[in-house]
Amino acid sequence: MRTVRTDCRHYLGDRPCAPHKRFGAVCDTCEYYQPRGRRVLIVKLDAMGDVLRTTCILEPLTRAETEGGVPPHITWVAGKDSLPLLSRNPYVARVVGMGYEALALAQSERFDLVICLDASAEAARLATLAFKSSAGNGAPARAVGFQLRDGVVLPVDERARTWWQMGLWDDLKRENIRSYQSHMMEMLGLEGDSGEYVLPLEVEELEDARRVLRSAGLSAEERFLALNVGGGGRWEFKRWSEPHLASFMPMVAEQLGLQVALFGGELEMPLIGRLMERAPRGTFFPGVHPVRRFAGMLAAAAVVVTSDSLAMHLALATKRPTVVLFGPTSVAEIEVFGRGEKLAPEMDCLCCYLPRCERRPYCQELIEPATVLDAVRRLLARGGESRLPAVS
User: Average per-residue pLDDT in the chain?
Assistant: First the structure.
């Protein structure tokens, strides 16, 4: 009988591992053996953009949890829409969609560290189950973030209390001056700054995205401004106003010499149709695509203009120069890593998180096209577009 190293990261149990399939390796003499290390569970189920920005914790977390030169074995449970964003992440050994499989692993596997970064009952329930199961199996498990106690979501300790209370009280949310990543690092008890977004795109994915852009109307020069007109369905006034969008497009073409590519989802199709009717020559809409292709298309842009949205997170993850327009959501929470500009009007009601409001002009209407164009000019002058996206 051959030796089977079941503690190896590559071990699958029901089929050959990747080193065996690719190189014919066997456990007795395998040079690709990697011990699993400390077992860490991350439960982060929120919206896709929130999941993506949370990847900023992975590098410092991995560094802190490495023992004897062996990095931790990280399992991440996320909503099924977010799974493609975690695909091929070099820090994450296993990605699991919320559902039966996640419930089964929480009950049957042992973890040294259980991290729940969502203050939702669904996430806290799963994390609490995993923590109790691990402790029951004799593991010296630690918990970070949030747990469920007597049916109530509560912070595990004082390090999670600030973020928890900001989610409960609007005035505390408005008073906040720290980034999301800073709060997550505090919750985890990690020193120093966070890492950056981790979204490795393969060469084939980037080439596929460029082919789609060219077929949609991108010129041979392949220099364009990506203008994201969407903002999701939760906060209506996260979107820039239609008149401003319409005015901004010819300014980009005439004053910067860039093509404009419109981006948005199914919710924005009527708006995009109206904008295309008024757009200058060369403006194009590449369509609605899966999220990794969407990221690849943004990665090809000279600069991105967007609201606080999934497009913003994808642009930052692919290291694009990005102008972000804010209104009902927090300016302070967003970290642009020195390659972006954040624009918001002077109003006493910013960061309201209201789905709708009756104030006119509303916040996004007060961000003038000329102001946005000036921010784009500054980013282009800094040479940010020469920074290439991550390619694995």
Answer: 91
